[in-house]
Amino acid sequence: IITAQDNYDYVNDFQKPGWKENTTTILINVTDVNDNAPVFKSDKYFETVQESVSKGTILTVAANDEDIGENGKVQYSIQGMESVLFKMDPGTGALSIASNLTNKIGYKCFNVTAKDQGNPPLNSTTSICINVTDINNNNPNFEKPNDTISIPESTCPGTKIYTVIITDKDFGVNAKINYELESKADNSYFKIDDSGNVNLEKKLDYEKKSLYQVEIKASDAGTPSLPSIPAIFLLSVNVTNINDEPPEFLQPNDTFTIKEGPPPIAIGSVKAKDSGFDLCYTI
Fold first, then answer.
1. What is the pTM (predicted TM-score) of this model?
2. In the chain, which stretches have pLDDT less than 70?
3. Which of 2, 6, 49, 142 is the most buried (most CB within 10 A)?
4. How does it sit in the membrane (predicted)?
């Protein structure tokens, strides 16, 4: 407020009679300049989500701008290669899913920028890391439903004779495979380890058995565990013969009778056997 007065004796410093005064009001409007950049409440944001998440807010970022009006109004945006999997509400800073996260396992890190609406605008940046975790949603798959191999009967117990090939599109423990042999007589001759290697457990004998049908089951170590597709892998093991047995005559001795005179072309025959091999007779 400003006051104006008349009839004042400035020399003697007193108000003369009949003086008058008047007042007026002056308003001073102090306007804001955009001199404060937005400041995030955290310099890094972390969150964990499962690959199956398809909607909903994952997290919300927040930045404060001490200016007022448009200078203090903040808009949010995300940048970076991994940011294409997500979307952010520019007004609230809420981050949600923009793309299918299936099999996108691991950390997805990108930047988020808060920019005010001043002229010129000011901004600040922080980082977001989303850890996408695996769920057990893939069955183990055998490369093929069956296979056939041949091994000699002289193969030593403890020898690896085959490796099962199986795949699981999950990750970590969900992709770990547990193997098991079906409880059958043929399977007692074999053993399978944690890597899918089939090893011979007992000595083979071609003369006693030449074909083994080994049934193998598999499942993953996830929770809940998922069985393999197909449920059973059939490994046919052909045992090949080696010449480890001498020929055996059908009868240990025999007697032939011939008449005197010119020698006949043949006086008799003998028979011997040797599994899988041709025989040559001499005297």
1. 0.68
2. 3-20, 244-245, 256, 263-264, 272, 274-282
3. 142
4. Single-pass membrane protein
Verify that 174 and 216 share a domain, yes or no.
Answer: yes
Total domains, the chain: 2
In-domain check, residue 26: no
125 and 161, same structural domain?
A: no
Query: Are 85 and 120 contained in the same domain?
Result: yes
pLDDT tens for 200-238 read: 999 999 989 999 999 999 999 999 999 999 999 999 999
Q: What pLDDT, on the 0 to 100 scale, is given for residue 153?
A: 94
- Per-residue H/E/C for the chain: CEEEECCEECCCCEECCCCCEEEECCCCCCCCCCCCCCEECCCEEEEEEECCCCCCEEEECCEECCCCHHHHCEEEEEECHHHHHEEECCCCCEEEECCCCCCCCEEEEEEEEEEECCCCCCEEEEEEEEEEECCCCCCCEECCCEEEEEEECCCCCCCEEEECCEECCCCHHHHCEEEEECCCCHHHHEEECCCCEEEECCCCCCCCCCEEEEEEEEEECCCCCCECECCCEEEEEEEECCCCCCCEECCCCCCCCCCCCCCCCCCCCCCEECCCCCCCCCC
